[in-house]
Amino acid sequence: MNQYLYIWYQSPGITEAADNLWFEELKNIGYECGIFTVRGVVFPNISDLTINNLLSENYTTQYLQRRFTRNGRNYIGNFMTYDVFFQDLRLVNNYDGVDGLTNSFAAAIWAVEIIMEWTITRGRRIHFFNPMQNASFQSVLGQAPNYNPQALFYGLILANVVNHYSPYIIRPTMTAGTSSSIKVYYLDYWSYFGVLIINKDTNTSASGNVAVTMSDKTGLHCLYVSASSLSATSGFTFAGYNFIPGTSQPQGLFKQFEYQPDSSGVYQVAVNYSQMVFCRTMNTAVNYRTFPRWNKLS
Question: Could you state, in order of their start, the residue ranges of all structural domains in the chain?
């Protein structure tokens, strides 16, 4: 039996200031080296970093388009053939970050959304900036040796759970009247369905039900990632858990919620202000490859 050892060598990554010729060599570097690495600073001007901008697609979907467009040419089409990694992705280009912003729940939402959009483009890994030597407001894990997981940590856990088993991701059809601040991703895991719902509305009264229509009527299991507000820098929960310094053991009790379709066959999923919700169908014994791949949410 043949056994192989794969070793990844990653360069520091191409910065935004790098010569455009690096991107012209993407194919050659990808072919010869296996991966093409870049660095990214989403808010080069710290004054642009606000709660509203963290929630704006201008700094997720559109940022990725800008990052990989040079001299009018977009290189994202190459991602289907060559592995492109973010060796270092950070919100602001300093060690400290910005208290109340880079460590806010809005930053956790930003992290989830940019990972989903990066996955849709067929980008590969993202290494988020994670300073640990000294205290930093844009650290994922917090300062060594005790660590205190920050908002970004909760977002990355959710993104990892959602992308487990590499689902086929689409942006569902949003029916008339849907809030533009509700971001939804439909997930086809081949043997079950899922849906990720992100409430980005800055109105503290923005709570209610999201109507989810899908062909599987066996029920949904949903877990919630929550905070008291979009600007909160502590008090986060992931499926009832929270994380504290000095231990990797989650605190609290695991919580998930079950939804059954209503009389019209629609799931009414409750989504509160400052929440993200991940749901998956209960029936995992069906081969959905033969099912239509679409979904409508409102």
Answer: 21-162, 168-297
The hierarchical CATH code for the domain 21-162 is 3.20.20.80
Q: What is the CATH number of domain 168-297?
A: 2.60.40.1180
Asked if the peptide bond before residue 145 counts as cis, ω within 30 degrees of 0, the response is yes
- 5-22 pLDDT, tens digit each: 655 555 678 888 888 888
Place of tokens 């919630």: 224
pLDDT in tens, 61-115: 999 999 999 888 898 988 878 888 999 999 999 999 999 999 999 999 999 999 9
Global pTM reads: 0.90
DSSP string, 133-175: SS--TT-SS-STTT----HHHHHHHHHHHHTTT--EEE-PEEP
List pLDDT tens digits, range 151-191.
999 999 999 999 988 899 988 766 666 777 899 999 998 88
C-beta of residue 173 within 8 angstroms of C-beta of residue 294: yes
Whole-number Å distance between alpha carbons of 237 and 49: 24
How many Cβ atoms are within 10 Å of 158's Cβ, its own excluded? Answer: 25
Closest CA to 10 of 83, 92, 118: 83
Contact 61, 70 (CB under 8 A): no
Q: Look at 35 and 226; give whichever has higher pLDDT.
A: 226
**CA separation for the pair 116, 196 (Å, rounded):** 10
- Calpha distance 104→227 (Å, rounded): 9
Instruction: Name 184's Cβ contacts closer than 8 Å, sequence gap at least 6.
Output: 171, 172, 174, 195, 196, 197, 198, 210, 297
Q: How far apart are the C-alpha atoms of 206 and 225, rounded to whole Å?
A: 16
